[in-house]
Amino acid sequence: MAQRHGPRLVVAIDLKKKPWEQKLPLHNRWHPYIPHVAEVTVSELFRVEMVDFSGGGITHSYSAEDIKHADLSITEELDMVPLEAYGPRHLVTNPASTNSSVMAPRTPKLVVPIDLRKKPWEQKLPLHNRWHPHIPPVTEVQEGDFFRVEMVDWTGGVVQDNNSAMDVHYLSGPIRVIDTDGVPAKPGDLLAVEICNLGPLPGDEWGYTATFDRENGGGFLTDHFPSATKAIWYFEGIYAYSPQIPGVRFPGLTHPGIIGTAPSMELLDIWNEREKQVEENGLQSLKLCEVVHQRPLANLPSSNGCHLGLIKEGTSEWESIASKAARTIPGRENGGNCDIKNLSKGSKIYLPVFVEGANFSTGDMHFSQGDGEVSFCGAIEMSGFLELKCEIIRGGMRKYLTPMGPTPLHVNPIFEIGPVEPRFSEWLVFEGISVDESGRQHYLDATVAYKRAVLNAIDYLSRFGYSKEQIYLLLSCCPCEGRISGIVDSPNACATLAIPIAIFDQDIRPKSSKVPVGPRIVRKPDVLKCSYDGNLPITKNPGGTT
């Protein structure tokens, strides 16, 4: 059986029962002789459930009669409230209403459930890991519905909570969207998706940050860090900590890495053709390939490992779609894998619609991520859920999105950031310019500048007892802020990386006194790490610390 992660439930509530009928009966007085009902240990993470202050006597009924007759001295004994009022509170209607349709708002409807004991393709509604207009929707929602989508972590459970570092995006959906008249979203519309709530799946409250081996794709700094590495993170409510990166604890800004609509065939063909050109000709034509060493340059369609939801593998339909279906790794015109860390509670995504019904999908849940997700498998990856509402903006693409390319399909989504995020007041900011490790000048190249900013931060923070691998993974998943600070001052682009000081248990700012050294400041254990057995050259920084 899979190991359970998350708080231990010590006081459970059954909303169908009265307060005194609970497994652990509730009380409404203070007295030294009221016996305890549970016991916890110091530092244990535990969960206490509770009824509202009236014990369920005040309901969602569209009436004030329950308030009028409430006895505040014994709030749980509301004899005038029928027994059904103590049931699930969202099911209570107004018995006095002449309109039987008047009803309190429901909790979100679960439209895509996940069983963590099953593989992605074994789910009740099988998951998919490609973009294609002919992948059929697994469910349908109506504009204005409040619904819940569950999802696996992006690897489909391949990476485990263990000491192995050798462990593709599985998406929940597609979901067809219709309006209140039953008319589906149409090509040219905008689909506004509001994130009302999100989080890890209960009982699976852990995550991981990792780098791939350089021979298996690597990450942003794979020429410096070629080995596969992994750190496990455990969640304490909004906070995360890792045994592999000790001395660090921070609140997460949870968000989906991927949310997008299905492409049309025309758009899919555009993707495949341009990405094929990059993969086939990029090494000869793109100078940036000499500085950034992630490979391949593009992940072209492949039937290997392909899962298409409800379409059965091995059928002629599956073979036809798999040969052209786009991989989910990059973000594109449909949204997709944009990895915008601030896309959390209260955010809205305005997605272009390319096929009837929109057929949007989501996945790749992150507990936290740094700007750039530099280690590639670099957020705190986890299973999770989204609770969403949708609105169809008819003709919205033409009204609000200007094509930046040769066709009306060359558009991009708009994102509205929500009001919820961690508050930090002090930051240490590292600068990078578009000069690479060999000292060669590049012209206004923000990628080279950001790489240098990240390398500067890694080298600096490794002076405080951490290995460089620990800092590399940390900068990929902690709530650090990346910026393009200057893009017009030839020849140097200027990028910055701001790190919140409060996430560390020590002061990391420069001081007039010497930097502390010795065993007392070494942070152990290190990240989980495999050997690198390839023969690709490793980039050395002649001026960096060892």
Name some characteristics of this structure.
546 residues, alpha+beta, Jelly Rolls, Endonuclease I-creI, 3 domains, six-stranded mixed β-sheet, 6 helices, 25 strands, Formamidase, FmdA_AmdA, FormamaseFmdA, hydrolase activity, acting on carbon-nitrogen (but not peptide) bonds, in linear amides
Chart the SSEs and their pairings.
Layout: E1 8-11, E2 46-48, H1 65-68, E3 109-112, E4 130-131, E5 139-142, E6 147-151, E7 171-178, E8 190-199, E9 206-211, E10 229-236, E11 239-241, E12 249-251, E13 255-260, H2 265-285, H3 316-322, E14 326-327, E15 331-332, E16 335-337, E17 348-352, E18 360-366, E19 377-381, E20 384-393, H4 396-400, E21 414-416, E22 427-433, H5 446-461, H6 468-477, E23 481-486, E24 494-500, E25 528-529
Helix pairs in contact: 5-6
Describe the sheet with the most strands. 6 strands, mixed
Give the helix level as a range of percent: 10-25%
Query: Kindly state the mean pLDDT as a whole number?
Result: 90
Oligomer: single chain
Strand order of the largest sheet: 3-6-20-8-17-21
Kindly, what is the distance between the CA atoms of the first and last residues, rounded to a whole number of angstroms?
43 Å
Radius of gyration: 26 Å
The name of the CATH superfamily of the largest domain reads: Acetamidase/Formamidase-like domains
Q: What would CATH call the class of the largest domain?
A: Mainly Beta
- Count of folded domains: 3
- What's the total count of β strands? 25
- Any low-confidence stretches, pLDDT <50, length ≥5? 75-102, 163-167
